[in-house]
Amino acid sequence: MLPQTHVTTDALAPVVSEKPMEEAGVQPAGSGESSEQPVKVEEIRTEEASVGEAQTKKHIAEKKEDPNPLLLDPYEFEQCTITVVYTRVGDQQASVSVHNHKDDPIVKSFPLVEVPLPEQIAYVIEQLLEIWPDGKVSATMVLLPREDESELKMVVSVRAGNDTPIVLAGLASEFPLPTAITALLKELEELLPARAMQKIENDAKARSKTNTRTTTVKATSSTPSKPGPTEVDGKTQMTLF
After folding, report:
1. I need a labelling partner for 33 at 20 to 30 A (CA). Which of 44, 61, 119, 203 fits?
2. Where are the domains of the chain?
3. How far apart are CA 169 and CA 52, in angstroms?
4. How many Cα atoms within 13 Å fall on the side-chain side of residue 170?
5. Span between the terminal Cα atoms of the chain, in Å
6. Which residue, 102, 104, 84, is CA-closest to 155?
7. How far apart are CA 87 and CA 112, in angstroms?
8. 142 strand-pairing partners
9. Are 137 and 127 in contact (CB under 8 A)?
10. Fold held by 74-191
11. What is the pLDDT of residues 133-175, one digit of tens each?
12. Which residues pair with 232 in a beta bridge?
């Protein structure tokens, strides 16, 4: 007769790892999957950006380049406004100035006989001189920018002193200018490229000064102020720290 063997139930209990199944690399029974180690997937953080970063990105997105002044108001002779100012100086002289945009004018004086004005303009000037013999009579002739393929247009304003002007308007061909004035216009046309570059440089310097001034103001406002003395029991106590 065989000896009896006592087996405890603890011996038959399955050995369970203290690590989770994922870390131990053990697949659950009946899963049908291979026993390969699981692939570790990197967690992707989708936290929203801080308020400061969002404002910075918004500022960058909203920042626009300053428009080129040559595109807004081109420095081309027939694409920008050209102004001619004719002023009678006494009985024998006339002063003529021509300019584009707000740039400095080219000014020259001529004998009256060298700068005869178109008949319509000359007639109005003579009428005003009869009323104000000693008055300062001037005629401002403005060549407007060309529209498409149409002919250049001109607007003329004739006045005595600061009195109400008499305005004439029509095609530029209806107001033929004398040779001396057309020579000044030709000189101005040749100077336009150089004036365009000067315009760009002046605008760049103006923006640089504005940015520097703004930065200085911000830096000054952000500088902490020195703490002043505090009142303690009616006496002045200086803060050491």
Report:
1. 44
2. 74-191
3. 58
4. 8
5. 98
6. 84
7. 10
8. 83, 155
9. no
10. 3.30.500
11. 888 899 999 999 998 888 999 999 999 988 899 999 999 999 9
12. 235
Cα torsion 49, 52, 53, 55 to 10°: value is 110
- What are the helix (H) ranges across the chain? 9-12, 21-24, 51-62, 69-72, 119-131, 179-222
Which among 180, 162, 175, 179 is positioned nearest to 122, based on CA atoms? 175
CB 142 within 8 A of CB 101: no
For the stretch 49-62, pLDDT in tens is 555 555 555 555 55
CB atoms within 10 A of CB 203: 13
pLDDT at 118 over 80: yes
Residue owning tokens 């005595």: 160
Amino acid found at 40? K
Residue 74 has pLDDT above 50, yes or no: yes
Distance between CA atoms of residues 131 and 147, nearest Å: 38
Residue 123, pLDDT > 90, answer yes
Contact residues for 143 (Cβ-Cβ < 8 A; gap 6+): 81, 82, 83, 84, 152, 153, 154, 172
CB 126 within 8 A of CB 135: no
Reference 177, options 75, 85, 77, 76; nearest CA is 85
Listed as own residue / partner, the contacts of 1-9 with beta carbons closer than 8 Å and 24 or more positions apart are: none
